[in-house]
Design goal:
By secondary structure, this protein is mainly alpha-helical. The chain has one domain. Helices cover about 40% and strands about 5% of the residues. Strand 1 (about 15), helix 1 and strand 2 form a beta-alpha-beta unit. The longest helix has 16 residues, at about 60-74. The two termini are about 15 Å apart.
Length: about 70
């Protein structure tokens, strides 16, 4: 069953880095700085190499996003 979210819910933004990348990549850090300096908005940079790059799989990544980004909002 779908949840009904209030229209006053705050938005959060996250940069989801690519495969074999990290939240500390030049692109991620520069984008985070731009969000802060130009928009005055925080940009989350979650580490998606869960539990490690060698053991990374899509289901772990999706679970991590759901638990650490989506559920933190609601």
């Amino acid at each position: 069953m779908a949840k009904n979210f209030s229209t006053t819910t705050a938005l959060r933004y996250a940069y989801l880095h690519g495969f074999a990348s990290s939240p500390l990549s030049t692109k991620a850090v520069q984008l985070q700085q731009w969000f802060q300096n130009e928009l005055n908005i925080s940009l989350d940079l979650p580490d998606l190499n869960i539990p490690s790059f060698r053991k990374q799989c899509l289901s772990n990544t999706v679970d991590h996003i759901e638990k650490n980004i989506i559920r933190k909002i609601y």
